[in-house]
């Protein structure tokens, strides 16, 4: 599975209120994200940046990408080590710091997966699979801030 992978996405600004970007308060931050063959995603800026709180924002999409990538990498790691996962829920959070010059950056993301495994004998391997998933996660390997993991493993 080695090789180069390419992804395409169309971002379309849908926030022209009739006068374009004639002033900072004169346009909406609404965007439609489109990938061929998939449902469109309604997106906007985050609320503090004059965005629509009912739409996904770039910061949430980044957090979602990190959480889902770890989840999928983790499930693969568990399969390869014989761990049977029966449930997985991640309550992820991220911190972004503004720099005071109209910019900023994420400083950290914390993933808090609550994982349920089939048997008690799988708990330690399930915990170790998070380390393997971190190494495999394409998105986490692409960011320049820490992505920490605080997993909880239960048997059910």
General description of the model:
The chain has 156 residues and is an alpha/beta fold. Helix content is 24%, strand content 28%. The protein has helices at residues 58-81, 123-136, and strands at residues 10-13, 31-34, 41-43, 85-90, 93-98, 104-111, 113-117, 147-149, 152-155. The strands form three sheets. Strands 1-2-3 form a three-stranded antiparallel sheet, with no helix packed on it. Helix 1 (58-81) crosses helix 2 (123-136). The longest helix is centred in the middle third of the chain and has 24 residues, at 58-81. The radius of gyration is 19 Å and the shape is elongated.
Biggest sheet character: 3 strands, antiparallel
Helical percent range? 10-25%
List how many beta strands DSSP finds: 9
- Widest beta sheet: strand line-up: 1-2-3
The span between the termini is 34 Å
Specify the structural class: alpha/beta
Order of helices and strands: EEEHEEEEHEE
Percent in strands: 25-35%
Mean pLDDT metric: 93
Radius of gyration: 19 Å
Shape: elongated
**How many helix segments?**
2
Taking pLDDT < 50 over at least 5 consecutive residues as the criterion, the unreliable ranges are none
